[in-house]
Structures are given as C-alpha cells and as structure tokens.
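Let us work through a complete example step by step.
Step 1: write down the sequence.
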Amino acid sequence: MAEKNESKTELPTREVVITRLFDAPRALVFKAWIDPKHLAMWWGPHKFTNPVCKVDARVGGAWHIVMRGPDGAEYPCGGIYREIVEPERLVFTNDAVDKEGNVIIAGLTTVTFADEDGKTKLTLRTRGTAKVDYAAAYLQGMEAGWTQSLEKLGEHVKTPLQSPAEADNEIVVTRIFDAPRELVWQAMVDPRQVILWWGPHGFTSMIEEMDVRPGGIWKHTMHGPDGTDYPNYSVFKEVVKPERLVFSHGGSKKGGPAVNSVATWTFDAQDGGKKTKVTIRMTFPSAAERDLIVKEYGAIEGGKQTLERLGKHLGKR
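Step 2: predict the structure and record it as tokens.
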C-alpha cells in the first residue's frame, strides 16, 4: 500500500529594508524611538493614532502599542527589546496580535542610526512571518506602512524633541513655524482664519462666537470625517498680544467623555523674528482624565495634526 504524503503549506515571510536621511541629530532621532510620548506621535501609517503606547526601553523590556485607524479599528502590536545601543542601534521583536492577544504576524526589526554631518541616516530592516492564513494579506502592506511611519517620524523630528517640562496631568505640543509671530498670532485669533486650519486632518469647524478678550466666549463645533460632531465651549482667561493666550476649554462628542482643561498657547519669536515657536500646554484636572482623553480622542496626535494644518495655512499667506 502506497504511503500517503501530506504537505503543509508554509505561511509567507516578508522582509523590508528602508533607508532614510533625517535632518536631525541621531540622539534626537533615537530618542523618538524609545520615549513613549514621542513614539505615540509618529508610529503607524498616515491618519493613525496611538491611544496606547507603553515602552520599557531596556534589553528584555517590553513595548506595547495599540494603533487606531481613521475608521476607529484598533490594531495591537508589541514585542521585546533584544538590543539597545544608544544612539546607534535598536533590535526588537515586532508582533501584530488580534484582540485576544494571539500573534498573527511575528516580526523582528533592526534599526541603525548613523551620524552624517549632524544629520541621521536611518536604516530599518524588518521581517514579518504570517502565523495565520488571513495575516498573509497584511504583509503586502508592510512596506507602505513602514514608509508612512518614517515619513511621520521625519515630520516629528523637524521640531526639537526636548519639550518643556510636562506634568502627568498635562499634554505639551510644540512646533516652529517659518512665519513671524504677528502672523501666527493673527491666524489664531481671527475666526475667518481659524476655520481654515483648526482640528486634526479631515476635520472642519463652524464658529458660532469668538470674542478674543479676557472673559470672552469661544463657541465652535468640530465636524469629524466620520460625521461626528464635537461641540466646544471656551472662555478666554488671558490675552497678551502677541505672546500668550490662556482659555478654559470644555468639549465632548455624543456618547463620549467630556473634555475639561485649561489651554495655554505661547508664541515665541525666533531667528530674529523670522520664525515663531508655538507651545500648547493643556492642563487637565487629573492624570487619569489626561490619560482618558489621550485614549478616547487621540489628543496628542490631534494637537500635532492641528499645528501641521496651521503650518500649511501659514505657508499659503
């Protein structure tokens, strides 16, 4: 009787190598990979946010990120650090998991950072192996996903990573604009301009009232790309032209938690008045409320995207 031969189809493996030159010192680029506050701001494809980002940056330490797509779907991933040679080299496992925590793609990623006259040449080599049949399709988008992540990293390191001191109940976002302070200030206090750039990518805004003076009211509704409305109500506390704005802020979405914070915007002239450094500091009643808003609304990435839109708006003027 002839033996029956059974062959098991091997699930696919894909390897991607990407090299990119960043106009930033390698110590800063390296930091963006191991500091969770910065990693959360660029990891993942365009329009993805990271409501969960935990990093234990040591050999044997774990990292865990939950990416959220523009449609609200979540994609957990994580792994273990195998090598950390600051600021030269990172090696870590990079696994995608399902909602039950089962590995669907097992990965290994090596990132090297080479100094090139003050800039950073980054080389990323990553390998992924599908562990379930349906994950094979995800491997096809691996190169595009990593390419977009590195594009976001490039934008992130254009501004200094050393943010002002940040308490555990605060979010601080900073960006430098190629525009004089008076121009940037006006873009923030003129409602005709604010509606052109306010909010994350894909959002629009309708302003009912904007009275920029101490005690003045600012009422506006943000419209999300999925059709969700976010009504906002703020009261200006300080208006120091063109240096500083402080306002209390309350907002929510239907069925979502309320947002209550005090926002402080500072405008610092730089490079002989040719540029302006804008710092947004949002202070929440507690660390728990700060973390909830980051998770539910992607507040860190939202703040970053809002300033990106402001930069594009200023570039048109």
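Step 3: interpret the result. The chain has two domains: 13-156, 170-315.
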